Write a sequence for this structure.
């Protein structure tokens, strides 16, 4: 397998014609991610293609710039690598690591829910990611099953850093997915690193139960439930998992785990994780409880099918292009 150094294209002047375009792996508000093969090296990547005009219209230039800068900074075994970036008059592109196992969300929905051991294995990796990001003052702010990918080895890779932000103290932007939003974000009190630990609590609950703790047909109903803070734990919940989730889903920031003086250590030393070697986890020495069915490096069968888009977005005039230094 190629090393990360060999995969790196950041020193090259790239164009979309350097790649053979394959299946669409996912779509979003500003574009799509496609499986691609770099023609000259034969290596496989995920190419994130975003429409400049749509980003400018929705006033998301800063978010997208921030995503690229943050991804360029990060190097962690459980975070998707960025190997290059380029642009043309219509699009900006990010060349990302291709994660063959597909979306965590798909595997969770297929399974219905995960058992205690599997949930613990994934929660531990997210804990490591947040600990690492927070040391760099980066708050992720958008944890949800759709933003986690699973590699062939069964370990996770966090992707989509569009909402991530370098925050020294606090910020006030409302962002995130309704079921995962922390109370301090809803109350617009200013938020920072503790929001990530709240979302970890939501994810653990969703993995073990099969749905998040605060659900409603209507986002306003979800927000009311989050602020009311009443959580029901089904009998299937392991008692130590329940204890940790309660400590993460604490509206009081002075009591929320991850935000106390020991930081992430309080979570890592919690009884739920007592049999886990954190060093072995980071070194990927622990056998994953589940490995996706993968036929090879070019397999895209773990991703859903998306219709192709035939509509070309308008080109952005060079004099009005905020992405000239992309």
């Amino acid at each position: 397998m190629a090393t990360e150094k060999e995969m790196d294209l950041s020193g090259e002047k790239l164009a979309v014609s350097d790649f053979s375009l394959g299946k669409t792996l996912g779509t979003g508000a500003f574009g799509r991610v496609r499986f691609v093969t770099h023609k000259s090296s034969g290596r496989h990547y995920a190419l994130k293609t975003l429409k400049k005009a749509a980003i400018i219209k929705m006033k998301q230039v800063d978010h997208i710039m921030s995503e690229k800068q943050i991804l360029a900074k990060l190097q962690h075994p459980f975070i998707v690598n960025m190997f290059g970036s380029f642009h043309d008059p219509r699009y900006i592109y990010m060349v990302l690591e291709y994660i063959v196992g597909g979306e965590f969300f798909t595997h969770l929905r297929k399974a219905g829910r995960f058992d205690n051991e599997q949930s613990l294995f994934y929660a531990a990796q997210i804990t490591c990611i947040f600990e690492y990001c927070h040391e760099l003052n980066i708050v992720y702010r958008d944890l949800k099953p759709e933003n986690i990918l699973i590699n062939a080895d069964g370990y996770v890779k966090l992707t989509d850093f569009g909402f991530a932000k370098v925050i020294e103290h606090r910020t006030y932007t409302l962002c995130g997915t309704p079921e995962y939003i922390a109370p301090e974000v809803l109350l617009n009190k200013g938020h920072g690193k503790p929001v990530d630990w709240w979302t970890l609590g939501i994810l653990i609950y969703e993995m073990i139960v099969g749905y998040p703790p605060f659900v409603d047909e209507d986002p306003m109903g979800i927000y009311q439930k989050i602020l009311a803070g009443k959580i029901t734990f089904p009998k299937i919940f392991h008692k130590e998992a329940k204890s940790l989730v309660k400590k993460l889903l604490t509206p009081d920031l002075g009591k929320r785990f991850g935000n106390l003086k020991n930081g992430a250590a309080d979570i890592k030393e919690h009884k739920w994780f007592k049999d886990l070697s954190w060093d072995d986890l980071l070194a990927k020495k622990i056998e994953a409880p589940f490995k996706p069915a993968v036929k090879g490096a070019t397999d895209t069968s773990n991703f859903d099918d998306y219709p192709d888009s035939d509509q070309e977005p308008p080109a952005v005039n060079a004099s009005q292009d905020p992405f000239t230094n992309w």
